[in-house]
Amino acid sequence: MAQMNETLDHGCLTGLTSAVYVDESAHRPTLAAFKGSSTLPPPLAILPGTTDPDGGLYIHSRTGVVTKVQIPTDCLAFQTGETLQLITGGKFKAVPHFVRAAGGSVDGRQIARNTLAVFTQPGLEEVVDRQTGKTYAQFCREVAERFT
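and the corresponding structure tokens:
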């Protein structure tokens, strides 16, 4: 499988929920229809799984193996980022990863993959590299420069 845009999270820990798949074409309520009303649009039905078994989150292990991550629906997963790697002097390693998009339109349906990622990081003035005295703000500037 070709590697997509592999990346590292830049904070300490990222909390992840399992993927939820919905058919966005099942009904398309307009917000105007509910303006001024206490009635909410109906929720989209959650599909039992993906229509594209290759879609989802993949991690790159320290041994070079690319593995698809399947988070059970009643669980949270956590992955480590670059800042935690710095703070621990490399005892924890940032997890290289990428997301392969689900197939999109299937039989006229618009399938969407939804997850929630919660990123945690230290305060901007916290020292994250004791050897150099680098703060999290300085590290963030370095990360931004990598992408500009």
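(Above: one complete record from the training split.) The longest strand covers residues 109-114.
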